[in-house]
Every structure is written in structure tokens, then in C-alpha cells.
Amino acid sequence: MQKENKVIVTSVNNNKFYREFNICKAEDLKNIKQAIDIQFAKDYVVWDKNFPLFQTPSDLDEKLKDVSSFNKLKNKIIKLVKNINKDLKMLKCWCNLTTENSKYLFHTHNTKLTCVYYLQSNQDCYGTRLENEKIIFPSTQNSILMFNGSLSHSIEYMPNKVFDSIDSHRYSIVFDFI
After folding, report:
1. Backbone φ, ψ for residue 62 (5° rounding)
2. Distance between CA atoms of 33 and 132, rounded to whole angstroms?
3. Does residue 29 sit in helix, strand or coil?
């Protein structure tokens, strides 16, 4: 049985950020990544050649509805969100894949809560950057960061030198709640 962790709450400029670590078991991590790799092979999204962005469509939860490991993750995240605000409902879900040529821009989500789950991340320092707060939350593998989606944020750029194999690619799954 996996030990329950406590959610860590951090306040920055009157905004709350929630973190929890060790969300999934190792076998579930492997199964989720495998299922997402299949989705990327089928129908990933790439925008603008100057800003390569690898992202699944925003109905990942529907596409992976038969993947038990993904459902465990989704249900765990919904439970965490309900402890923050019981009235929130999941709007959409997708995966970002950061590779040696990815470039992400600052953006916002029109949501009450954005949850970034770090499925695979070997370089903690290349996490989620908050534009106005000048902070980077580490992308610790198998952890989640939850915050108000209206805050401008981005995936921190990773220099090509940190990519030595496909295992260096960062996978983050985003769950948006309204």
C-alpha cells in the first residue's frame, strides 16, 4: 500500500501553490508513459516551426479511459482538487512532451485550477516557470503542482546538452479544472 503524503501549500504574492510528491507507483508510471507514447504516435499537435511544441489533444482523459494506471492518477488528482475546492470539475487534460528542440511560451489557462503532473522528469531545475513571480517550481518526477491557471507560466527551456537519451525527455500531464 502506498503511503499517503501531505499536500504542501506555498504562498507567493497571495497566490497559493499546492504540491504533492510520490503520486503513483512505479508500475503505473511505466504504464501511463507507454499509453501516452502511443497517443503521441497517433495524433500529437505541433505548432509553428519556430516554436516546436509537442502536445496531445486536450481529451487525453477520454483517450486513456481504458488505461487503469491513468485512471488511478486521474482519480487521485480529482481527490486532491476536491480537498482544495469541492465545487471544481475537470475541464480537459493533455500531455506536453519536452524534447531537445521544444520551445514553450508564457501563457495562461482560463481555469480556476491548473494541475501539472510531472510523469517523467530527470532534470528538476527545468520545471514550471511563473512569469511575474520570477520563480521556477521544480519538475520533480511523480509529483504534482496545482495553481490558479490565470497565472502566466511556461515550461522552463532546457538546453540541448541535457538531452542524452529519450529518457531525458520531460512528460508533464496537465489537468484543468473550472
Report:
1. -75, -40
2. 32
3. helix
The sign of the torsion formed by the CA atoms of 89, 29, 172, 65 equals negative
pLDDT tens, position by position, for the chain (178 residues)? 344 578 999 999 999 999 999 999 999 999 999 999 999 888 767 665 555 578 888 999 999 999 999 999 999 999 999 999 999 999 999 999 887 777 778 999 999 999 999 999 988 878 899 998 889 999 999 999 999 999 999 988 666 555 565 577 889 999 999 9
Q: Which one, of 56, 58, 5, lies nearest residue 33 by Cα? A: 56
Inter-residue contact 12 to 135 (CB < 8 Å): yes
Q: Cα angle at 106 between 101 and 165, to 5 degrees? A: 25
**Of 10, 25, 8, nearest to 141 (Cα)?**
25
**CA-to-CA distance for 153 and 40, rounded, in angstroms?**
23
Strand boundaries in 2-60, DSSP class E: 8-12, 15-21, 54-55
Write out the three cell numbers for 71: 485512471
Q: What is the pTM of this model?
A: 0.90
Distance CA(12)–CA(8), nearest Å, equals 13
